[in-house]
Structures are given as C-alpha cells and as structure tokens.
Amino acid sequence: MSDLEWYHYPEQYGHLLEQTKDHELVVLHEDGLYRHLRFKAPGTSMWHWDLITWPGSLAIRGDIGEGFIFTRTADMLRFFDQGQGAGRINASYWAEKLDRGSRSVRSFSPRKFREWVSEAVADREDAAAVIGDAGDVDYDHEAVDVLNDHRVDWDDVGAWQDYDYHFILALHAILWGAKKYHESKATT
Question: Which of 26, 79, 31 is nearest to 54 (CA)?
Fold first, then answer.
C-alpha cells in the first residue's frame, strides 16, 4: 500500500507535496478576514498560488487553482481547515460552495467509464471485447459510440464523470495553505 493511498485523491495530493516541498507562506495582507496569502518557494514563482479571503469568500489563483471562488461562511480558511487531517479534502461538499457551481469542475473520466463498463457488461459473452474497446476511450462522445456499437444500455453520462484534476489539486492546495496559515498563527 502506498503511503498516500488513504488520502482523498492521492495522485493530486502526492503531486502537490512533491512540487511544494520548499514552499513558504508569505502574508501579503491581513486585516481580520481580509487576507492575501501567497505560497511559493523562495526565488521562484513555479507552482505558486495565492489564497485571498474576505468575509464569506475565498479565492485561489496562480499556478494552482484556475481562479476558483468559494462562498460559504465568514471565515473560509476555517471552513476548509475544520480539524481534518492533511490531504483529507471533501471534494463533493466543497464543490457545492463554488461560486460558479459544482458542474463546472466535473468532466469525463476514462477511469470511471472503464469501471462502469466493466460492471455493466460483466455477465455478457462479449464482455472482454466491450471492455477492451472501452479501454481506448478518452472522451464522452467516444464512450457513447462504443456503447452504441456494442448495444450496451446507458442513460446518464454523469456516471462517467469525476472532478477535474486541477480542481482537486486546488482543493489540496487550499487545505494545505489553510493549515500552514493556522500553524503560523499558533506559533506566534
């Protein structure tokens, strides 16, 4: 078992830890709930990101985050860091708090499609052929073609969706950053 296997979305969490091992917190502005925090390694802006908060909102931007804005409670850093362990993100709940809606961060997942197909055709004689063709699919329109070609009943492409890689990476970065911020406050 991998050291990161128990984390939520361990691939993205491992990638974040690998790329940010030298990152430091820089407080650019702090006035109550109005904060501008930057996370980056000294001397470079590679893999940097900013967390910007104001009452009821948090934005992440930079190399990680693609400009996501979350809204929920007055202190959004506390919202994300509610005592759970590092790497313990809550993707579905946190996605509901997106300013532009949770559907905006979900897309076709070849892995989820292959899992779905394996279950859907397990009892069929041609299961190996269908599963083999499903393994070559990278986009939802290709998935529909494979299912129609093999006459597999389906009714919802949503079953083949997952959260975008960069959204999950941003969630891990937010939690990581919130923990760093709260740790810095506890030591001062």
Answer: 31
- State whether 66 and 132 are in the same domain: no
pLDDT digit of tens for each residue in the chain (188 aa)? 345 455 578 889 999 999 999 999 999 999 999 999 999 999 998 999 999 999 999 999 999 867 899 999 999 999 999 888 888 999 889 999 998 766 678 889 898 999 999 999 999 999 999 999 999 999 989 999 999 999 999 887 788 888 888 999 999 999 999 999 999 998 87
Whether residues 19 and 38 fall in one domain: yes
**Residue 13: its H or E element:** helix 10-19
Q: Which domain holds residue 124?
A: 107-163
Write b or e for each residue in 166-184: b if 16 or more Cβ atoms lie within 10 A of its Cβ, otherwise e.
ebbbbbbbbbbbbbbbeee
Assess whether 89 and 176 both reside in one domain: yes
Quote the tokens at residue 1.
């078992």
- Our CA angle for 32, 185, 41, nearest 5°, is 100
Regarding whether 113 and 79 lie in a shared domain, the answer is no
Number of separate domains in the chain: 2
Residue 75 maps to a domain: yes
